[in-house]
Amino acid sequence: MSRDLLIELGTEELPPKALPTLSAALTEEFVRQLDEAGLQHGEVESFAAPRRLAVLVRDLDEKQADRDIERHGPAVQAAFDAEGNPTKAAQGFAASLGLTVDQLDRQDTGKGERLIARITEEGKATTELVPAFFAQAIQKLPIPKRMRWGSRKVQFVRPAHWLVALFGDEVIPFELLDLQSGRTSYGHRFHAPGAIELSQAGEYAGRLENEGHVIADFDRRKAMIEEQTITAGKQAGGTARINPDLLDEVTALVEWPVALTGGFDEDFLRVPQEALISAMEEHQKYFSVLDADGKLMPKFITISNIESKDPAQVIAGNEKVIRPRLADAAFFYDNDCKKTLAQHAEGLAQVVFQQQLGTVADKCQRIGALAAVIAEQTGGDSAHARLAGELSKADLNSEMVYEFDTMQGIMGYYLAQREGQPEDVAEALYEQYLPRFAGDKLPQSKTGMAVSQADKIDTLVGIFGIGQKPSGTKDPYALRRATLGVLRIIIENQLELDLRDLLDQAATQLGDRIDAAQVDEAFDFIKGRYRAMYQEQGIATPVILSVLAIEDACRKPLDFDRRVKAVAAFQQREEAQALAAANKRVSNILAKLEQAPPEEIDGALLEDEAEQELTNLVVAAYEQSEPLLEQGDYQAVLELLAELRAPVDAFFESVMVMAEDPAVRYNRLALLSFLRDLFLNVADISLLQE
Predict the structure, then answer these.
(1) Which residues pair with 68 in a beta bridge?
(2) Residue 147 bridge partners (DSSP)
(3) Which of 191, 186, 149, 136 is nearest to 164 (CA)?
């Protein structure tokens, strides 16, 4: 037999940003315990609204199945005395299970005969198990700081007011957070604040919606808000800008969503739209409206938690609230526009970037110098890159960024445009922070690419140079993210840059502020990011390691990328494993030599036909691969070398490498060395061997 189970905890308004996490954690832990207890069930539904967390488990077993279990007791030798009478050990074991000694069996365990009890453990009723399961799920919720309320000693993230526990139509009686479980839930705080007496667990969502004005299902409420917002945006003549994080937060703030459209004075549109959008989203939880060109319109969409009889009054109230927020943004912007970027930058000499690495002004000078080098190497304007680097952090001293931290870089872009700086300089001030996260867009201008890399490389070398490298999960300067950003910029923009050389140049600029010997460790850190990045792309680890083994390949990310993709394609060929094994064999042979083999192959010492044929093919492969290597066409090189499989196999089958004649032996070792070097021009494919 089975029934639906509903448990709901009613509270004061829960933290909106934490609501989805709390709901997911509660459901996961509660269902995990049901599953571990062997209780079969159907679909599980989670409910999360501002004032409630609930779980509905469909078709849950009414009791656990009985279980046949075996318990091992003492060894027979210790269980009976010389006369065959049971000892205290045997009697105690039997008594602990509610049995007598004559009800026990014997079993040979391979280490002697032992007493064994075979018993049937009767399954417990679901109503007995649920209270403890739910209490544990509540206790394990990821709540950083719990609170007490009133005179109660219990703690939770917010004051708890009611508890529903229904198994079908039966109340499961228990106490939690000083609340006694029952069948009484409550509706919307304003529309339907009265009690809702639930008859059956399965009627929960429908009764709350129809009688309580509460959409308890988070995902359904979210979809309703999104649909209403999109419609409101179209009705306003534009497109609603729906920030996913804001959508989740608003969903967690309302139980009965109603979209309303308001407006603000067009004069505010002279302020950078990012600041206006930030003010609306962060402070008021409004959705903004954009026109066909992506420009902000003087409209906003708010999600009300009530269905007002006079929506115009609600809209007017929201318009009144947003006006001073936008006025503040306009005030800060106007003040910032009274200064040039260079004047804003003057204050950075008093702002410490890092005690040992100097001020932010010092960092900007280093960024400018390194950005100029990068721009020159990538076909950009080195003078513009230097200027952009020197001004890169100027807007950190602006009132706008002080008030809206999301405006860093963006404010610099607008100020640069306003004072007539070159367009690529303005773009670079915005692009310097890209990519901000995994999958984020990359800088598009050559100047922006140069400044973004210079900033990140300077931080990487500086922090490693003072011995504060990341450890475990601690990465306060976000060096992992910065390094992946540099790699992506170089690879995806096809930049022919030597990253190791740039690290050395950054170290030179930092001078005696750092321990220059730590640059090697910073470079090793970059190698680790290569591995993480390509594993994320699904590239097999042996493929990545085969390229990491080539030091020169690690210096140039674009070159590394070409090699990895070539080896990944080569690994799929049937010849790959045989050639990997051959390379491994050659590597082992050469590693044992006390002296290096000759740098040339003496044709007069070639005795075997297979030896002669392989030599001819290796020499030919060198000539054919040279132009391909210069072009970076590593896939073509490996396709060429794949043809060596048969002659390599023939060589090892018929030729004794370690011949008695030292001259012949070392000539053959020279051939193997040349063969291995052919592959090492791309990667150490011996590491591909399974």
Answers:
(1) 120
(2) 156
(3) 186
Rounded Cα distance, 612 and 276, in Å: 77
Using alpha carbons, list the distances in angstroms from residue 13 to 100, 175, 335.
58, 21, 39
Detail the DSSP E strand segments found in 25-79: 44-49, 52-61, 67-75
Q: Give which of 226, 228, 274, 217 is closest to 246, Cα–Cα.
A: 226
CA-CA distance, 630 to 589, in Å (whole number)? Answer: 30
Alpha carbons 165 and 307: distance in angstroms, whole number = 30
Amino acid residing at 191: H
* Distance separating the N- and C-terminal Cα atoms of the chain: 52
In this prediction the pTM is 0.80
Residues β-bridged to residue 121:
67
Question: What is the C-alpha to C-alpha distance for residues 69 and 122, in angstroms, rounded to an integer?
Answer: 10
Question: How many CB atoms are closer than 10 A to CB 385?
Answer: 32
Give the Cα separation of 341 and 424 in Å (integer).
15
* Beta strands 52-61; 44-49: pairing state: antiparallel
pLDDT by 10-residue block (mean), the chain, 690 residues = 95 96 97 94 97 97 81 82 83 83 79 80 87 96 90 92 97 96 96 96 96 97 98 97 97 97 96 95 95 97 95 96 95 96 95 94 97 97 97 96 93 96 97 92 96 97 93 88 96 96 96 92 94 93 94 94 93 85 81 77 76 84 90 91 85 79 79 84 85
CB 279 within 8 A of CB 325: yes
Give me the helix-helix angle, 662-680 and 575-591, nearest 10°: 130
The secondary structure of 630-683, three-state, reads HHCCHHHHHHHHHCCHHHHHHHHHHCCCCCCCHHHHHHHHHHHHHHHHHHHCCC
Give CA–CA dist 388/430, Å, rounded: 10
Structural tokens at position 23: 């709901």
Q: Are 332 and 407 in contact (CB under 8 A)?
A: no
Phi, psi of 580 (to 5 degrees): -65, -45
